[in-house]
Fold:
Amino acid sequence: MRVLIIHNPKSGFGSDAIFEFERMLIGPGDECCLRILGPEASGADELFDAERYDVCVLSGGDGTVSNMLYALAYRDVTACVFPSGTANLLYSNIGNAFEPAALARACRTGTTALLDLGEISWQDDKGIERTRGFSLISGMGYDAQLMRAALPNKQSMGQAAYFAAAFAHPHVSVVDFHLTVDGKRSDHQGISCLVADTATMQGDIALVPDCRLDDGLLDAIVLEAERFGALARPIFAGLLDKSGRRIGRPTFSHKRGAEIEVVSSEPVPLEIDGDVVEGLVTGYRARILKQAIRVIVDGTSPYHPNEAPA
Ligand SMILES: [Mg+2]
Structure:
């Protein structure tokens, strides 16, 4: 087996679990190439020869891994997502077992699933058109504001940094979002406008029900809460009803489609899979890239071919 491992040493708590995983994965006769990302590297360039390998292990946080998966879109490459970040939401959404030995076995077995990726485009402060891939949730408004505020504490506090930031920033501005989903326009007032490839967050809370990585659709979600107090309602609704099927999400406005365009009434921050982009934006376009990536899955994943869809 030929294996390429790309590791971001700055992800999460700087854990070296990836090296333990490498030892479990590699056996006699195998070839392994390990590339460590430098501070400015996105991981895309390091995948230039990814087709040479039987499996490419992408090790980092959600932002890094999404960048690398986008670089692999529609290429003849099998990727294995390895959880080295703070939240590792993509890993949780793929649903593989958390034991490195089980993941190494899954790489050997080579069972894969074809999953969707999101692609998001926006105009930056200088009017330059930018495009990036995402695998979870991107959005503009309060969510991006929170992530920007949490950034200095992420390395030391982990996920708690987001909650600390939420309590430090209880006042949020409400803006107008003009949303177009597959050509249908609607107008909303809210604090955030999110677009999700899959919408299961920390603690297995599904922002919207039945959102999957292989349904060929994006979910557009406007958070219509006006204050942090009001935001607590959907969070608690999430804790009580994780799937979102029973009591719904009272302050969310939710639409599903393959192409989504958002325009906001004033400039707000934008985050892509938890990475906040520089400056402010007044809108974005997002589209789904159907079945763009081939990813290793094990028997515990809801995307395993023998698993009936939830
Ligand atoms: Mg989806």
